[in-house]
Specification:
Radius of gyration: 18 Å
Distance between the termini: 12 Å
Shape: globular
Order of helices and strands: HEEEHEEHEEHEHE
Structural class: alpha/beta
Helix content: 25-40%
Oligomer: single chain
Number of helices: 5
Strand content: 15-25%
């Protein structure tokens, strides 16, 4: 855990330095500040707001729309399956009071449709895919797509499984936020 804490701290320092670098690269023109580095489109939760968050349909849509990175959240079910899911408690997403970490994968409920977008109150997303996917499915479907994977729980086994899975060529960047 000490190594993980150090890695997260170093990551925070690099993000801060990146912000300084971007600020240093900005230049002022008559129309205001302009960056001399290209921006990147990141599909937060696979593009929540356009499709149901963290579903294969959302990831497919984000990639087809040209997103450069997929951002997704992972947890581990009671039976050890690494799933792509933001909330630990599923009442917002499914209407059922279940804890992902205390539920077997086969017993996970479907997402609601439409589903309210948490970071845009009053906005809803919908889609045909309402299933919580396994992380391995995302890696297999998008083997070359850059991903930012947020590990949502302080769980060494989860961290190890995500790290090993990222070796499949996904180019994943891990972020551990508990």
């Amino acid at each position: 855990m000490a190594a993980l804490a150090l890695a997260v701290a170093l990551g925070a320092v690099l993000v801060a330095l990146g912000g300084v670098l971007v600020a240093a690269l900005a230049r002022r023109g008559s129309e205001g500040p302009r960056l001399t580095v290209p921006g990147r489109a990141v599909a937060h939760r696979g593009g929540a707001g356009e499709r149901i968050e963290n579903t294969m349909e959302a990831f497919e849509n984000a990639v087809s729309e040209g997103c450069d990175w997929l951002e997704l959240d992972v947890r581990r079910t009671r039976d050890g399956v690494v799933v792509v899911c933001h909330d630990r408690e599923l009442s917002r997403q499914s209407g059922r009071h279940l804890d992902v970490t205390q539920t077997d994968y086969q017993d996970l409920p479907s997402y609601r449709s439409p589903l309210e977008v948490t970071f845009s109150p009053g906005s809803f997303s919908s889609g045909c895919d309402r299933r919580i996917p396994r992380l391995v499915e995302v890696f297999e479907r998008f083997p070359r797509q850059p991903m930012s994977i947020e590990v949502k729980d302080d769980d060494d086994d989860l961290i190890n499984e995500v790290t090993e899975g990222a070796g499949l060529g996904s180019g994943a960047v891990l972020g551990a936020f508990f």
